[in-house]
Design a protein that fits this description.
By secondary structure, the protein is of the alpha/beta class. The chain is built from ten helices and 13 strands. The relative contact order is 0.17.
């Protein structure tokens, strides 16, 4: 179980907060400077040693599959020019990783999306990256690599958390638990999008998970919760009570690109960072 190779990307959502831009283009393909958002996530997975990339897609997401493939006509057109260097990063990913795809026919929550990936994940531990959350680390290993290291130590599901202002806590799954160290908490409670006055803590779950394969059976037997969706938080709470789930205050910066404001923030941040490099 310690040799994790697969990372699941749930990318079937409609991206309605970015309409009309996402009417015909997946939100995961929106560019942060000159690179689509989903590529940042795949790079993070690969840097953590997860080189089998599994996408749970939906209708209108074909461009994601095309992006992680060779475009022979384009490559022939720019061969021998200075433009070739712009494709070096995606070429490296294509060479380094394998890619598998399955479709989520209905949008029934993150738990359901993860369950949809069961056939391509199999009976092994795996990472989950939500492309909406752009995680950037100035020095040292990326967030997924940090979490893989913890998984090898604890052999249980690991979820990434960060402190969230009270006025925004109702947008998150929120955990409570027993501190193991300054940055680790053993989860004892978990609530999806609580009222700010009833939240068990100010620690919100962000879009990075390392999950053990028993989570699939738990999700399968999880009753739909908020908004009629199968919530991964409900499944993780059961897993925590029956075994162990560790919440990790990761090192790095997370920007919520699921909102227009966050997407603009990420674009400005990455432009300044890349320009200075």
């Amino acid at each position: 179980m310690s040799n994790i190779q697969k990372c699941l990307f749930p990318v079937a959502g409609y991206g309605t907060r970015f309409l009309p831009a996402t009417k015909a283009m997946p939100k995961e393909m929106l560019p942060v400077v000159d690179k689509p958002l989903v590529q940042y996530g795949v790079e993070e997975a690969a840097e953590g040693g997860l080189n089998k990339i599994c996408f749970v897609t939906g209708r209108g997401k074909r461009s994601i599959e095309d992006h992680f493939d060779i475009n022979y006509e384009l490559e022939k057109q720019i061969a021998g020019t200075g433009k070739e260097v712009a494709l070096s990063g995606i070429r490296d990913l294509i060479d380094q990783c394998s890619f598998a795809y399955t479709r989520q026919r209905e949008m029934l929550g993150l738990g359901h999306a993860i369950l949809t990936g069961r056939e391509i994940i199999g009976d092994e531990a795996f990472g989950v990256i939500l492309s909406d959350d752009l995680c950037l680390v100035e020095e040292g290993p990326g967030v997924m690599a940090q979490m893989i290291r913890l998984y090898r130590q604890f052999r249980c599901s690991i979820i990434a958390i960060e402190e969230v202002p009270k006025e925004r806590i109702s947008k998150y799954g929120v955990i409570a638990g027993e501190a193991i160290s300054d940055d680790l908490i053993r989860v004892t409670d978990m609530v999806e999008k609580p009222d700010p006055d009833e939240a068990p803590s100010n620690y919100g779950i962000i879009g990075r998970y390392v999950l053990t394969p028993d989570i699939f059976n738990i999700i399968e037997n999880t009753v739909p919760g908020l908004n009629g969706e199968v919530q991964i938080t409900d499944a993780l709470l059961k897993q925590a009570r029956e075994g162990c789930v560790i919440a990790y205050k990761f090192k790095g910066r997370r920007i919520d690109c699921g909102s227009v404001e966050g997407f603009v923030e990420a674009t400005n941040y990455c432009y300044e960072k890349f320009r200075n490099n």
